[in-house]
Amino acid sequence: MLVSRFVTLFILYFTAGSGTTVHDSYNDFVEEDYASQLDYKNPHWCHSPGLTNGEVTCHSPQGGAHRSTLGTRCEMRCDQGYRLLGKSSIHCLASRRWSGTAYCRRMRCHVLPLIPHGRYTCTNGFMVDSRCDFTCDPGYRIEGQHSRTCERKGSWSGAQPDCEDTDPPKIKCPPSRLKVAEPGKLTAMVTWDPPTATDTADKSLDVILVGQEPGTDFKEGASIIRYKVYDQARNRAACKFIVRVEVRRCPDLLPPLHGFLTCSSDGNNYGATCEYQCEGGYERRGVSSRVCQFNRNWGGYPVECVPMEIKSDVKTVSALLDQFYEKRRLLIMSAPNISDPDYQLQNIMIQKSDCGLDLRHVTVIELLGSPPRETGRIKESLLSFEVIEGLRQAFRISRYYFSMLLLDKLGMDRERFITPMASDELFSYIDSFLLDEEERERLELHRDFCD
C-alpha cells in the first residue's frame, strides 16, 4: 500500500510542475487488490512436488524439511527402468508455481526385427529387463545368442542371431530288385522310378544319380545304385539300393571223348545251345545239340563220339560216297600194282602221317591193279568190284599209272597228284584250301596230339 501511494503522489507532483493544467484526480483513485508480499517463510508457497516412478530431492533456503517454500530447488530422479522427461531441476517461483515439470516414462528398447525361419518371445515386451528368447523353425538351428535382454540404457544386449538350416533332406530309394536274364542273354533291362527328396527348408531339390541309369541293360551280378541330394545349405542326404541280375546257368557241359562242343552265348547260360562235334575218325552218336533250360538242366541226352564206321560192303559207289558227304574228305590212291615204286613211297608217307589225316577228317581209299585181280580197300576193308569201277568212272582214275585224287566234303574233285606228295606238302594244301576257320582252330588245339 505504501508503494502504491508513493507512485501516485510522484506522478501528481511531476505533472504539476510542468506548466500544464492539472486536474486533481486523487478522489478518483481506486485502490487495487495487491498481491501479498513475498514470504520466504511460508512453508507451502508452492504445492508439494511429486514424481511418479521417481524421487524428488528438495533444498529450501529455510533449511530443514521445507519442500515448497519460495526459492526451494528440487532435483528430479526416476526409478530404475524409467527415463526422466522434462526438467531435472525445478525451483519454486514467486508466482507460486514451479519453474518446470517432469515425469518418468518407463524405458523400452526398439522393436526387435524378425529373423528368417524363426521367431522370438519376450517376458515383458520391449521394456527394460525384458528377455526375448529366439527359436527357429523345424529343421533350423540358432547360430549366435539364444536370447537378448533390454538393458537399462534402452539397448539390447548381444547381437541378432540367425537361423541356419541344419536339417538334411530326406530321400528314400526304391527297394532292391532281382531280374533274371532272358534266354541267350547275359544282361537284363531293369527299370525303376527315381526317388524324390523333401526338405524342411527348400521346396525343390536336385536329386543326383550315382550309377547306371534305369531302363538300361545291367550285366550279371550286383550293381549298387546310389542317389544323393543337397539342399541350399549344403546339407546332404543319400540312399542306395541293389540291382541284381541273375543269369540262370546249367552245369558245365563236358565234351564227349574224341569230340568237342561249340556253344552259343556264354556256353552254359539259360538259352545257350551247344553243338556236338567229333574229331577226325569219329562220328556223333546222339543228338546234334542241347539247350540249357530255365530249370538249369540241359535238354536231351549226352552224346558220344564213336569211331567212324565206313560200310565197305555196299554195292554202288553212291552208297559209299553218301557216307562221306559233308562228313569227311577222300584221298584216293591208284597204282597199276602194289609194287609200283611211286605207290610204295606214297604209302609209306601216308602211313606215317595217318594221325594228321584223321585230324583233317581225311579217309584214304586205295585202288590197285587191273581186272580180274584189281582190288580196292579202306584200310583192311575191301570194296566190291562195282564200287571200284564206279569210283574210276566217276572220277576218271586210270589203272596204268600212279595217281592220287583229293576230294572235299561235298565230293568235289579238288586236286590231283601224279607224283608222290610229302605229308607236309599234302597237309599244307589241305589246311590252306579245304579247312574252314573253325576246323583250323581245332587243328591248332590238337596239333601236338600227333607228335
Automatic annotation (TrEMBL):
The keyword Secreted applies. Transmembrane segments: none annotated. Residues 164-247 form the HYR domain. Keywords: Angiogenesis, Cell adhesion, Cytoplasm, Disulfide bond, Repeat, Secreted, Signal, Sushi, Synapse. Residues 56-106, 107-165, 248-307 form the Sushi domain. It comes from Perca fluviatilis (European perch). Pfam families: DUF4174, HYR, Sushi. SUPFAM superfamilies: Complement control module/SCR domain. GO terms for biological process: angiogenesis; cell-cell adhesion; positive regulation of cell migration involved in sprouting angiogenesis; positive regulation of synapse assembly. One of its GO terms (cellular component) is extracellular region. One of its GO terms (molecular function) is signaling receptor binding. Its main location: other. Residues 1-19 form the signal peptide. PROSITE patterns: HYR, SUSHI. Disulfide bonds join C136-C163, C278-C305. The keyword Secreted applies. It is found in: Cell surface; Cytoplasm; Secreted; Synapse. The lineage of its organism: Eukaryota, Metazoa, Chordata, Craniata, Vertebrata. This is Sushi repeat-containing protein SRPX2.
